[in-house]
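Work Package 3 (structural annotation) set out to generate three-dimensional models for the target panel prioritized at the project kickoff. During this period the team completed the workflow that converts sequence records into discrete structure tokens, so that structures can be stored uniformly alongside our sequence database. As a representative example, we reproduce one entry of 713 residues exactly as it appears in the project archive.
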Amino acid sequence: MASEEELFASVDALLEEEPQLPSPAERARLREAAGITQARLAVALKTSTQSIKNWENGRSEPKEPRLSAYQRLLKGWAAKHPAHSALSTPTPGAVPITVPQPEPAPKAFTGPAAPEARTAAPVKAPAAPVVPEPAARPAARPVTSSRRPAAKKAAMPAADPRFPHGPLAVLDGDGSAYGVDGVVLDCPATTIPDLVEWTLRESGLGAAKLHRYGKDSDPLIVLTAAAAVKFGLPERLEGHEQRRSLRLSEDHPVVKQVLKARWQLTQRGFGPWARIYRKAQGRERQCVQLAILSWDALDERSWPGVAEMTPADIARVLGVYAQRVITPRGSTAVSGLELMTALRPPTRAVRDEATGNWVPGHNPGSLGTDPMDPAPPEATPEHPVVVQSGWTGGFLNEEAYQWVRPVDTLSDEECLLPYAVGLDLNTAFLAAASRLVVGLSAPDHFHTPTFNPKIPGSWLVDLSHVELDPRLPSPFTPDGTRPTGPAWYQTHTVAYAQELGYNVQPIEAYLRRETGAYLDPWHDRLKTAYVDTLADLGVTRDLDDRAFLAAMEQHKQVDPALAAVLTAIKATVKGGVGKLRERPQGRHYRDGERWPALERPTWRPDIRAAVISKARVNMHRKLLNMSRMTGLFPLAVLSDCVVYPSPGASPLDFLPYAASGKPQPGGFRLGPTPGLAKLEGVQEMSWAVDLMEQGLNPARHIKGGDAVLDEGE
């Protein structure tokens, strides 16, 4: 007979299930039968027409609260317009249900059959994470200590009743804990263990999970310098190691205090981002994230000016980020990676047919729970796969552009133009992640396979025969030089050579049989966060190009707090992609040893390569189309920034427009959406030529940064 705990687990699993919808085709049929257009339905559900299209072709699914509203509408239509077939006629008042299936693997490989997959034995189901409900909440009081008048506030969703005070708080030295929406709590804690207990039992802080199979976000407490000193922590964390590697020594009084109270620290120890936890007891999850401002927890590059804001304003910045992206758990790179897992949890509850119990099972479309070694050409030179096998066959070199056009290819007409104008693609790597099919299983090795652009993987191909205009960078190398022989390329790079009309004959390949658009929900959430935050700063989709350029000139001054959120969102994209191939850290590392990042299922250099390959190919396609439409060729490219010679100081002076005044598709277009362009900067043409003659990249100086994706903490 089933135990009470097993029955409760089964019931909880049913309660957590989201409303089921009919198949995408049935959704479209019901809408058409009701005589409603996609645009009209989008207005009714307060979403975009593209979202309706995606729901009806199976590319995405609605989320709450639209999910329940959409289901209610479909039920009503199903009752009025039943299908003619007896098999598809729904029960009165019900909507036909289809169980979503995993995406099928691409068609036939030319190599040998795949080795048999090993089936992992089911493991004991972990208890569902639940934040304990405190007996009493501390009274909240309004904020009264901000140096800046309140600006337009980003809209926040209705509070989760389990977490009435939001996802986080910024704690000052006087015991005031500043939360989102102007809430201030009184925190009586005088030690770090007391602070952890107060946060879990009384604060009402936390955030609901982003996916039904995921976990709630642990509460975040940000300590000001005064609060850190109050709890016995040093105001600054100094040492010879890199800032992100610094931590308190194991014999520090605060560390001893934490351990004596039977709390634990993660392997990162007590550093700028410290996680303090106890192993879950039953269904109760006990974990608190701390961030110490004076230890540089909020990096100035990702969070410009935030560490110097008042506690109330810091809470506002981090609160908007938590609501739109995720509650921070470390650097923006760490948060970018955590967001991938939060939106694609590795496991879901499945029923064990032998026992009837609910146990953790693989969640289709996720990366699973176990780390996966890359193919040798996808690894880094110090990786054990390379060192232990003695691999000498070369590596993928899928990196962002760092190219300067040879000066001798400049014409007199170009040199006489007065301006060099820099265009920057909005979150180019995020745009590349959209609908990106990546491998979900281990790589298999093939010899002389037939190239298939639908199969993600790494291909050894000779592309040195591809002839392109020398005034454009090669699409196959980061420095834009022409390949000199066989090299390893990601699928998108090889597919682009085929798109250009050239024959490709792979010599070898490492390919993956199980595939899926793993990054789609990550892309969708970050895109929405980026576009919504820009809109709050006055840069909306309905602006024409002139108004867009004017709005972009002023957007950082509209609201510095939201401008910092925008920067953090962009850093989350780049950092998250970069961290898919985090390199070893520390002075004591030796080649061939495993490093901690390799134990994550999200250590996937092949996925990083796929994103960068697609972004670089997208950039080259625009460059090529621009040369065909306008006769203009770039001076330099750095990652997502391209510099063009121009007769005027505005992109409007050289971008391609139709006679009607509308931008022509295919080339660069202005706008706030990821993948579209904005003005990055303007310089004199003579200045750009001088840099090029010195072998320097004008795009680097205009952009004020580089193309390296952050691979650290």
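The CA atoms of residues 164 and 204 lie 6 Å apart.
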